[in-house]
Design brief:
Shape: globular
Radius of gyration: 20 Å
Largest sheet: none
Helix content: over 70%
Number of strands: 0
Number of helices: 5
Structural class: mainly alpha
Distance between the termini: 67 Å
Oligomer: single chain
Length: about 110
């Protein structure tokens, strides 16, 4: 009976433990850094007096520069984004930090 109880407790503890972050998923801090730079790139593209079709050509180039700057592939970023979007509270926290970072950059005049 004691053995059954121990097995039950073990199964219950594993079933109730929070999902661990899979290997290869970017940290929240790294996601904030990348998302901040992506939003800055979007802002740059939208500020140019060019047609929408031209901005669609320019943006991927700037986005690629962001990934190179952070030494992250676009597939790792997208997989990490999908992972974090599974928990809206976490994604909300990441975006709140991203917005805070953008406000700091804006207020510093960079």
């Amino acid at each position: 009976m004691k053995k059954i109880f121990l097995h039950f407790c073990l199964i219950l503890s594993v079933a109730c433990s929070p999902d661990k972050q899979p290997e290869g998923v970017l940290s929240e801090d790294k996601m904030v850094q990348i998302l901040t730079d992506i939003h800055l790139a979007e802002g740059i593209v939208s500020s140019f007096p060019i047609h929408f079709d031209s901005s669609r050509v320019l943006y991927p180039y700037l986005e690629n520069e962001v990934f190179e700057k952070h030494a992250v592939s676009d597939s790792v970023f997208r997989a990490s984004l999908e992972y974090y979007m599974r928990d809206l509270r976490v994604m909300d926290r990441i975006y709140a930090r991203t917005i805070d970072s953008l406000h700091v950059i804006e207020s510093s005049g960079k």
